[in-house]
Amino acid sequence: MNHVVETKYGLVRGFSARGVRHWRGIPFAKPPVGTRRFQPPEPPDAWDGVRDATVFGPASLQPEDQAIANIVGRAKLPESEDCLYLNIWAPEDDGPHPVMVWIHGGAYVAGSGSVNWYDGTSFAQNGVVLVTINYRLGALGFLYLGDLFGPAFASSANLGIQDQVAALRWVNENIAAFGGDPGQVTLFGESAGAGSVATLLATPSARGLFQRAILQSGSGALGVHTPDTASAITERYLAALGVQAGDADALLAVPGEKFVEAASALREPALPFGPVVDGRILPKHPMLALDDGVARDIPVILGVTRDEYNLFVAQDDRWFQADEDTLRQQLRRMDPRLPDGVINYYLAHRQGDTAGAKLSPLVTYRVFVEPMLLTADKLVQQGTPVWMYRFDWASPVLGGRLGACHAMEIPFVFNNLHQTGVDRFTGDSPDRQPIADQMHRAWTNFAKTGNPNTADGTEEPVWPAYDLKRRALLAFGTDTHVEDDPYGPERAAWSAAAPPSVSIP
User: Fold this and answer.
1) CATH code at position 189
2) pLDDT tens-digit readout, 127-159
3) Residue 460: predicted pLDDT
4) d(CA 489, CA 373)
5) How confident is the model at residue 503 (pLDDT cuts 50, 70, 90)?
6) Spans of biased composition, class Low complexity (predicted)?
């Protein structure tokens, strides 16, 4: 087994464990610090000798998500502006093996590719080279400066997306040395990671760098801003930061931690930072780009968890104790266009002992399901092979309030139920492992063949491709099964009473 591998920029030394080769903290770009802050990523400098690749690189600077930490007990990772590193798990033979590149979620402001839930050991044991990446987050990765700071910052939009493209380019140029096939790359992510995947489908500079895509609980509508909206957010953010528009010297002199503090002081939309349709890196809204067929030749898996929104209210007793009128007001603050007819539909058709329990599925549909369905429809209309799923495993944690909430499927996909903190999220029932085996096998099959079903068709149930007539999905759970058009009644209720949630300029 060879732990020393030659990349385009120098030699790296990894290690072996559990029959898998590991490399951690490999730089895929120069540190984006000093005068490179708010500038596009540049290829890393070459180095002499053998670089140690046994320690994860730092995560991007980010706020502490105390609510999530209270549930899973996730340790805070080292952070730095110098964060553009990737990690590789590979089989011990030379391959070539298909490659999967994971983009972590975290609302474009948090997360890291080194979180233990994303450990790629199981993928590598099953013949896939797994790569996880870091990218610039929050203001450092998504602040829109071009209209306010002049020509020197004309290429500063979508830096987090540009970082992802740089990582994909590094994979394209170097992964063969690690046993990977650069012509067989599956890009996958969850939440903002899935939004990033959808954005990369519409990003010309990413074209040809991946051949398959998986969107878990995210779509091309997630957090995408127009230049006007992004500029308005930037102006409010700069005021909180205490920097005048156009004062580049002051912007570059701000300590990195202040960018996180300034963001927390703002009262902004749920996703103030995210991709911007800047006309250069992202020429067109990802949803409109899908209409142009940008993903026509890229097979796609996409799906949601059954109870996405539960994660965000599971610890909020006010949500579950509030009366109907209070929740109507709260929902209208989230979506001013929301009519009584839709709210009444959920109150009448959803089970639950409180109004909050009945109305959580409303937000799940509006924020996650409806954009997923629109994305799937656009893809199949262009001839893209699509498979849709729903994750139904209901966690017993927090008295069952989590259910099949946002991010619940991640340790199942990675087959990492044994990792620290997972049982605090999923519970510890042995019923979990068969579901993890199914999901992990489907994702691995997809990376190898572009189809999540086994090549010989012996896996049951067979996962049918999505189409506009049957609208079938595979529901992963203790009784994994196929459902035809399960969102039909909700779709009808919404279309009769409310405009679409996805606003595409």
Assistant:
1) 3.40.50.1820
2) 999 999 999 999 999 999 988 998 999 999 999
3) 81
4) 13
5) low
6) 492-505
Q: Is 481 helix (H, G, I), strand (E, B) or coil?
A: strand
Average pLDDT over residues 416-425: 95
Using an 8 Å Cβ cutoff, are 97 and 28 in contact? no
Going edge to edge, which strands form the sheet with 386-391?
A: 15-17, 20-27, 85-91, 129-133, 97-103, 180-190, 212-216, 300-305, 386-391, 472-476, 481-484
DSSP for 253-278, written as a single string = HS-HHHHHHHHHT----S--S--B--
Question: In the numeric block, which tokens belong to residue 314?
Answer: 């599971």
Q: What is the spatial distance between Cα 415 and Cα 259, in angstroms, rounded to a whole number? A: 35
| Whole-number pLDDT of residue 498 | 59
Closest CA to 216 of 196, 235, 232: 196
Phi, psi dihedrals of residue 79, rounded to the nearest 5°:
-130, 150
Please tell me the distance from the alpha carbon of residue 253 to that of residue 320, in angstroms, as a whole number: 45
Residue 72 carries which side chain, given as an amino acid letter? Answer: V
d(CA 68, CA 162): 28
Instruction: Please tell me which residue, 333 or 137, carries the higher pLDDT value.
Output: 137
Give the C-alpha separation, 224 to 55, whole Å: 34
Does residue 269 have a pLDDT over 80?
Answer: no
**Sole residue written with tokens 């502490």:** 64
Omega of the bond prior to 96 within 30 degrees of 0, cis? Answer: yes
In the predicted structure, residue 403 carries a pLDDT above the cut 60: yes
Angstrom distance (rounded) from CA 416 to CA 408: 12
Does pLDDT of 502 surpass 60? no
The per-residue pLDDT of the chain, averaged, comes to 93
Residue 39 within a domain:
yes
Dist. CA 116–CA 422, nearest whole Å: 9
Work out the pLDDT band at 476, boundaries 50, 70, 90. very high
* Omega within 30 of 0 (cis) for the link into 461: yes
Residues noted as catalytic: 191, 308, 406
- Count of CB atoms within 10 A of residue 74's CB? 18
**pLDDT at residue 67 in the model:** 57
Exposed, middle or buried by CB within 10 Å (0-12, 13-18, 19+), for 354?
A: middle
Position 210 in a domain: yes
pLDDT category at 74 given cuts 50, 70, 90 is: low
Main-chain phi, psi angles of 492, to 5 degrees: -65, -40
Q: What is the pLDDT of residue 124?
A: 98
CB atoms within 10 A of CB 96: 16
Residue 458 to residue 502: CA distance in whole angstroms = 39
Q: What is the pTM of this model?
A: 0.96
Domain-located, residue 45 = yes
Range of the domain at 204: 1-298
**286 domain residue, yes or no:** yes
Rounded CA separation 440/452 (Å)? 10
| Cβ(440)–Cβ(459) below 8 Å | no
Which amino acid does the sequence have at 115? Answer: V
